[in-house]
């Protein structure tokens, strides 16, 4: 039977449309195969992921990319942030915080974005950045290109703060309240305070806190006071908020002086009770007697019994501030502080030992806190309007009641005994870290003890054993006690070291490129919820934050389980670190490995290629 030839029911226009659709379909198939099986496709996919990394519009996309990095499936490094972010501090971002309440300077305190609102990118160094000048030369000069902020030099050069000199900023050592230099000022204080006998060790240098004064005044004098005090064996810690003078705290850190960004506003400062042997305010302009003396009460909480409070500048015998000066003296009398001296515009008080002298009636309504108020809780803890009783903490911790420096470094303090088996834990921890640090130096070639390392952080400090093992090195250590772990920061201060509380699911309060070396033991514990083992935040975000505060060519030392170190190593590639994994020292028990990484020195130009 023959086939019938049936007429087509489609016209030529319909056939042309079908041909176009078919051609488009096959073209897409070819393009798909090209992207999947060629290097160009890999490059294009990586670029797409990088674009998503810089976008915070879709949290789900960000989460997926974090998962890729953690799994080691992200072949390219995390992209650089823009040049405008070279000094970015996520929790102290004026663009974000300026809309908040001005009451008690709340808007200048820490206000952290959630990770989903934060672009995942690496902070670049400024144009022309160099490896910082080594200590101790950095006390006197730093590279201008590392911090091209001229406001302080322009406004305060005549007072001896700092001056621009060719490629450098130089620091003659002066300040508003000591134009002749920090050394003569410290010598004057030494007439009234036993600075040189080892009885005093930890000192808090309080920074300027109130914006209305910032255009014409400032406080920490770029931390020159603290820098020269270190020569006398004291360990000062300077703080100030992010200020209009541009990076005042960053200048201190670039010089190798202990400092961090903080604001005395509505919350306690992140320290335990009775931490500092000496508290110093040079023209800090903090209204100590405002809000029923709330700020003076906070200083009293931090000052060790038998310690000294020094205030230089307004309102001490200052023109047109008679009432403020009278009120300041009235608060000190109500707290039974002993007046040591009034020398010009400087007043020195000594805090008493004991609570019995606080009168039941006083013009400021001061009274002792009850037992429900924890004197050492200080992470996002609202300021109290009551005085911390010394009897609220057992043991001897007053100046004169604890050993002098350096004996106090390795002698278990009374507050260690408040923890179960605390004395034994303290002594074992001290011996353990002496062995470990020796291994770091001798076997892993970590540059501790060399001019390459000055600013050091221990992210999980416990009793401060790591820092204690470095006491003879030319370094200072910021000991961080995680806010969700046992409160051991008081022991760290009692042994003559310094540190802060912090939650590592948030950025740290410092500028980029702060530390030469960052150390952490048990890094995964910093992101996990105690007890449950579930992650509260991402290890990727934590290591991006570590990269932000680490200097180019800086070192990271991380010790944890082999499984954790393997995960860390995958992320290290994404944050542009060169990492090696080592076995632990033979004397240590348990199954740990050690990752030692160097932050590569890259720039925006090199990162784009």
Automatic annotation (TrEMBL):
Coiled coil: none
A Pfam family per the record: Methyltransf_29
Residues passing through the membrane, by range: 20-40
Organism domain of life: Eukaryota
GO molecular function: S-adenosylmethionine-dependent methyltransferase activity
Keywords: Glycoprotein, Membrane, Methyltransferase, Signal-anchor, Transferase, Transmembrane, Transmembrane helix
Major subcellular location class: membrane
GO BP annotations listed: methylation
Membrane topology of the entry: Single-pass membrane protein; Single-pass type II membrane protein
UniProt subcellular location: Endomembrane system; Membrane
The enzyme's E.C. designation: 2.1.1.-
One GO location term (cellular component): trans-Golgi network
Family: Belongs to the methyltransferase superfamily.
Annotated protein name in UniProt: Methyltransferase
Naturally occurring in which organism (per UniProt): Linum tenue
Top-level taxonomy: Eukaryota, Viridiplantae, Streptophyta, Embryophyta, Tracheophyta
